[in-house]
Every structure is written in structure tokens, then in C-alpha cells.
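hey can u check if this looks right to u? its 305 residues, i copy pasted from the old doc so theres a chance i mangled smth
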Amino acid sequence: MSLSPRVNMAAGGPEVSRLAYGAWRLLNDGQSADVQRVLALIQTCLDHGITTFDHADIYGGYRCEEAFGAALRAHPGLRQRMELVTKCGIMLVNPARPENRLKHYDYSRQHIIASVERSLRNLATDYVDVLLLHRPSPLLDPDEVAEAQRQLVQQGKVRHLGVSNFTPAQFEALSSRLDTPLVTNQVELHPLRLEPFLDGTLDQCLQRRISPMAWSPLAGGRLLKGEGEPERRVRAVLTELARQHGVELEQLVYAWLLRHPARIIPVLGTQRPERIRSAARALSLHLDTQDWFAVWSASTGAPVP
């Protein structure tokens, strides 16, 4: 049984790939932002059905969007084969933003629009498929966000709006002011972080028929090499299931997320083409119900109630 390689993120939302490529660590492997290297990563993704690319203005110290955009400038035809997601709102203390005295959030209409304009220039595109508000802010004014969304959508610069790391209540508060529905909530989600399964986050996605995006699906590498007791328990179960299915441990993790009825979209965070190819094979891997709960129980350290 294989999953469809594509999914509608929401009713009326964009069609995206079941796996997304995350640019967070695009420049974190000690290599330069070489155009050919970035192009090779993009092409590997596209060749394996991964057409959705997840960005944020702050990634790589405000440099990852520009590195990705340089590759698209070299081969502009690639833009029509992909969906671009980017985020705004986090303000880092960084030489690229000397006006920031401390880390904070900004969701003013002026900043959202300016951030999108900059991301469009950096990414060498005239629109983004999905703009995400990166983190909830205690000063977020839903009416002001709605004004920015209205202008950007009318201008064709943003096609859809979503959020990242929002609670269900924060999601609903923002949704109540928007002209068009939010299409996703990108949250940290993996076998070592079960809270979104229990706190209403995924229930809300099911209710609204939207696909959540899962950042850090491998728990930042802890599932592969973490030494805590939960990590060891989960890794032992994943290793045994991988042996039974004849696949790699990482593929089991992605398959575990893909098995959920909310149609979770795991966001990959690798710079290695072979790991991209490996991840794509998770779409043909089906975990039965007992396999799925074996991973859950390993995480909690106990059978389900």
C-alpha cells in the first residue's frame, strides 16, 4: 500500500507533496552556498516527488532564502515545479538586522508586508504559495494580520496563509478575523513529542480538514543517537520494525507520521541527497495499527490506558 505523493493542504488550499524539504539547515553543513550544490538538492527532491520547500526569513542567519533564490535565478524554470512556503515574525539579533536590540516577534501589518517583499526578492519569485506566521506573539493583533493578508493576497504575492507553533486557541483567534481560512499549522511533531496528538492540535486539523506540517520529525537527531531513556526505548522499537520491514530507521519515523489521518507533512532537514532519496521511499511503507502503537508505547514507557 502506497500513499499518494500529493495532498491538498486544505479545502481550497494548495496541492503539495506529502514530504516537504526544509531549508533551515541548508547552510549548516560547513559547505558554501554554492549554486550548483543547492541546485543538486532541489533536483534530487523534485526527482523523488518532493516539490514543497519550507523556508523562513531567519534561516541561516537570514541567508538561506537568498542561497535558494540564487539557484532559482540560475534555473528559473524550476519555480513552476515547486511550492514555496516561507515564514515571518521572528526578529533575531543579527548583523543582518542591526535594528533588533533583542529577540522578539513582530506581526504588524508593516512588518509582514515588508518581510514578504524581502522574501520574494531573496527567493527570486513573485509569489509564495504559503506564508506562515512563525511563532505566536502575545502582541499579535488578528485584525492587523488580516489587513496584511488581504493586501498580499489581492496583489498576488501570497496565495495562502498558515501558522507555525500555534495552539488551537491561538489558531481560532486568528482565523476569526481572516477572509480566507488558514491552511496549515506547522508544529514540532515526532515520536518523542506526543503533545500535539493530545492537546487538540491534530484534532483541530482533522476538524478543519487541514494538513499539519511536522518540523524536526527526527527530533533533531535524538531518535538516531540520543542517549536518554525515551530515546533508547523508541529507537529499539524502530530498529526492530525497520528490520522486519527491510527499511531504514528514518523511513519508519516518516511512515509513522504519515500514518496519521490528519495527513501530516513531515519536513525533512538534511543536506544529503541520499537521505532525501531514502525519505521518499517512506511513502510506500505502511505501518499497521499495532506497529504504530508499539512506537507510541515506547515513547510513553507504558501501554495505552
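The chain has 13 helices and twelve strands.
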